[in-house]
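Problem statement: downstream parser choked on a complex file, so we are re-checking the raw output for the GLP run. The parser issue turned out to be on our end (a line-ending mismatch), but while we're here, posting the original submission so the record is complete.
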Amino acid sequence: MKIIRVKNADEGGKKAFEIIKEDIESGAKTFGLATGSTPETMYSYMVASDLDFSDKISINLDEYVGLSGEDDQSYRHFMNEHLFNKKPFKETFVPNGQAEDLQAECRHYDEIIAENPIDIQVLGIGQNGHIGFNEPGTPFDATTQVVGLTESTINANKRYFEKAEDVPTHALSMGIASIMKSKKIILMAFGEVKAAAVNAMLNGEVTTDLPASILQKHDDVVVIVDEAAASKL
Ligand code: GLP
C-alpha cells in the first residue's frame, strides 16, 4: 500500500482529488464514493474544478436503513449536497434504504456493481476499522448486505443526529468482496481518533476483526493520512 502523509484534511482532499483527476485523464469512468466527514474536502476540490462528470457513473458504498433520500441524514442527501447537485454525473447509485424488500435491494445493488466495474473506490475508515458499513466480523467474501451497526459506529455517527436514539441501527453496505474488486482504492484518514485503526490496517494482521486490514491484499491502494492519523505508525 502506498502511504501519502499530508498536513491536514484539506491537503489530503487535494491529494485525493489530484489522483482522481489523473485517473480520469487515463480513462476512469466509474467511481465508488463514500460519505462521512473524511471525503468532504475532496468533494470540495472536485466541485471547484473544471472537471466534467456528466459521462461518469458513481456507486456509493452505503445507506442507512429506513431513511429516505430526502432525509437530511441520509447518505443520498449527503451526496446530492456535497457533489451531485453541483457536479452532475451521468448516473448516481446509492442503496435504497427504504426498499420494501431489503434483500432484493442488495441483489439489485450487486447487479449494478457487476454491470459497472469500479475504477476508483474512495474510502474512509471507521474508528473500529470498518470500511463502508462493513463492521468487524464481516466476512471478506461478503457482497451487498444489510448490516447491524455497532455501538462504536452509532456513537461516532450520532454527532450528525439530534440524539443517539435517532441513529438508524441498520444499514445497507456494499460488501468487502466488491470493494476489493475495484481497480484502485484511495483511503483517507484524518484525525487522532483514526490513528489506532490506521496502524492496525497497515501493520496488523489481516483479520475480519479489522475489516480494512484486507486492503493489504489489494495491489493498488493509496492511503492518505494526516499527521494525527499517522501518529501511531
Ligand atoms: C461511516 C461510513 C463510512 C465512513 C466512516 C468514517 O459510518 N459508513 O463510509 O468512512 O464511518 O466516517 P468519518 O469520515 O465521518 O469519520
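For whoever reads this later: The CA atoms of residues 144 and 174 lie 4 Å apart.
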